[in-house]
Amino acid sequence: MSEEDLNILDFIVDDTTVSASCAEPWKVLIVDDDHDVAATTSLVLRDVEVEGRPLNLLSAYSAAEAKRLLSEHPDVGLALIDVVMETPNAGLDLIRYIREDMGNKLIRLVVRTGQPGHAPEQSVITDYDISDYKEKTELSAQKLFSLAYAGLRSYQQFLAMEQSRRGLMKVLQASTALFEQPTLDGFADGILENLESLANMHRGAGGKIGSSAVLAVANENSGSAENYDVVAGHGAGAGARNLAEMGLGATDKRLIRELAKRGPGIHTSRSEDALLAGIVGRGGQTSLLFLPELQNLDGPDAQIVEVFIGQVLTAFENLRLHDQTERAQREIVLRLGEAVETRSGETGRHVSRVALYAREIADKIGLSTERSELLFRAAPLHDIGKIGIPDAILCKPGKLDPDEWEAMKEHTTIGYEMLRTSDMPILRLAARIALEHHEKWAGGGYPNNLEGEDISVEGRIVGLVDVFDALTSERVYKKAWPVERAVKLIRDERGKHFDPRVVDAFMDNLAAMIDIRTTYADEELARA
């Protein structure tokens, strides 16, 4: 995530913002080629204050000089512009330059003219983006004061709207970056990074603040801090296992208890110590943000923060539920694969190893993270079709006769037919792997005698690692081969049985293959 994405409210410290310049004078530009008019205007306005801030009066005696001053002072809030100066339309041309060439839509522009017939009010207001039109003869001291006060208050309001717009754009940018996080942990940590960045900007800090911000979850709506497991923590919260270890004050504990009494939705509370925001799901599961540095935010800042918190908490809760579904799906697939292997008198560890081998090779040959992970999840079902093979064949300790072998080969099509109609990506891929993992690169495999690129890359990968694991494992009909012998066979079958690219990735990653073989050996009880 880039620094720009994280600084979701960097406008808070921008030189042109109200919050950063609240002690600074308002800048007012007087553009008039009549030195007496300019001097009189400055004299009238020199002691004026708007919203407790004095005026910094800048004078330009031509449009060209005004352009130079505006480039040096881009935060001028109000400009009083004469029409006729070095050219009859110099003031009007300056207005177009400010709005179009400079792209400055915030500065308030007031046309002042001593020749209203030359620049009629109606046509000027219609054709130019100005705030007001005044004849010089009607500008008494009181009216100049009113003009400056109204113009600068209008500028302040436009500036605040622009700040809010920029803030919302930063929220959207940060949200986009967060939603690109591939893992639940990455998303959770990204939430805190964005909110900590906001707190730094608000306080004007030069570096990391000493906060203890955390994102914690409970599987049921609980009023006890001990039941909220920390999934992401910064500062003092980085090492906490649950909220109880955060040393919460009595008020914060009370707010958590109150949250437990509320229904589904997003709830925000403030204490003297922190801002707490929680989302309660319909099933009672709750995610809670504890943010010590944001308890004093108010006004537009607070509104933007709460919009962002609402977005990210909702997204996090949805992602958490999706993650739970994915893990449950993975568990079901793995157990189905294990059940088939156990039925044939073999260990269920085979399907776990095949999945791990396959992911390693997929990563090595450059498949995307998403595709590699999907292969990892689908691979355990490569032999699911064996569920339709009779026990007498599946568990036969000796060599199969030709008829038995033909029946055994049908497990590829049985598995494919079982899974192919699913609309779930994991099962659609599992169907193809089940069908293709006994095809051969040079042809001659079964069930469809495919060859080369006609076999999916996932089928080619599983085909190799399935052979490697079968050869190095003990079966009812054979003893386990030494790893060296199995590796030699795979090398010899490069370009014949196996895809050369997959063989090369296997050989380059052989140490990892052996480590998986050792870590998840048949006698081990642990599962991938």
Question: Summarize this, please?
Answer:
The protein is an alpha/beta fold and 528 residues long.
Question: Would you give an account of this structure?
Answer:
The protein is an alpha/beta fold. The chain folds into three domains: 10-163, Rossmann fold; 181-314; 344-519, Hypothetical protein af1432 (Orthogonal Bundle). The protein is built from 19 helices and eleven strands. The strands form two sheets. It has a six-stranded mixed β-sheet, sandwiched between helices. The chain has a five-stranded antiparallel β-sheet with strand order 8-7-11-10-9, sandwiched between helices. β9 and β10 form a beta hairpin. α11 crosses α15. It is elongated. Mean pLDDT is 81; it is low at 1-22, 201-210 and 524-528.
List the helices and strands and how they pair.
Blueprint: H1 3-6, E1 26-31, H2 35-45, E2 49-50, E3 53-60, H3 63-72, E4 78-82, H4 90-101, E5 108-113, H5 121-127, E6 132-135, H6 141-179, H7 184-203, E7 214-218, E8 229-233, H8 250-260, E9 265-270, E10 275-280, E11 286-291, H9 299-343, H10 349-364, H11 369-378, H12 391-394, H13 402-409, H14 411-419, H15 425-436, H16 457-471, H17 483-492, H18 500-508, H19 510-519
Helix pairs in contact: 3-4, 6-9, 7-9, 9-10, 10-11, 10-16, 10-19, 11-15, 14-15, 15-16
